[in-house]
């Protein structure tokens, strides 16, 4: 596989995860009752939408095409989140727990891609900025969970 195809493949995987997170956050914003959580989740959905556009642009810079859609695993996760929140007496807390789990996984995925030696510095800078945004969101959602 060529260098640009290999980098684009990794970026497409992150792009798919951002599509998934955007959809998950939109769903979370619909599920929670507290207005501050609705705003938080809507902001995270917009952030992930923006991350997706940055990744698409970077993939195109490598002469490749961005993929569309979300992953089967994420669709299953959203279904599980629907079930968990419908069974949970405290839906807000259940949604926050799922957001924490998802953000931890996202940080790990970004770190794995950033470990790759072939990632160009300009791409690594974009990925590091996005990862730092996810870490900030993770910290914020942990704080919100403690307040719940």
Automatic annotation (TrEMBL):
Residues 7-116 form the DUF2383 domain. This is PA2169 family four-helix-bundle protein. It comes from Christiangramia aestuarii. Pfam families: DUF2383 (PF09537). Gene3D superfamilies: 1.20.1260.10.
């Amino acid at each position: 596989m060529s260098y640009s195809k290999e980098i684009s493949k990794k970026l497409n995987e992150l792009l798919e995860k951002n599509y998934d997170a955007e959809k998950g956050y939109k769903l979370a914003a619909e599920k929670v009752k507290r207005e501050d959580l609705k705003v938080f989740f809507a902001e995270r959905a917009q952030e992930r939408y923006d991350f997706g556009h940055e990744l698409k642009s970077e993939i195109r810079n490598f002469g490749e095409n961005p993929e569309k859609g979300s992953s089967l695993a994420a669709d299953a996760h959203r279904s599980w989140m629907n079930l968990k929140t419908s069974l949970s007496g405290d839906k807000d807390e259940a949604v926050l727990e799922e957001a924490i789990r998802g953000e931890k996984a996202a940080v790990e995925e970004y770190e794995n891609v950033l470990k790759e030696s072939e990632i160009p510095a300009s791409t690594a800078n974009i990925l590091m900025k996005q990862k730092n945004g996810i870490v900030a969101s993770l910290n914020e959602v942990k704080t919100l969970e403690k307040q719940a």
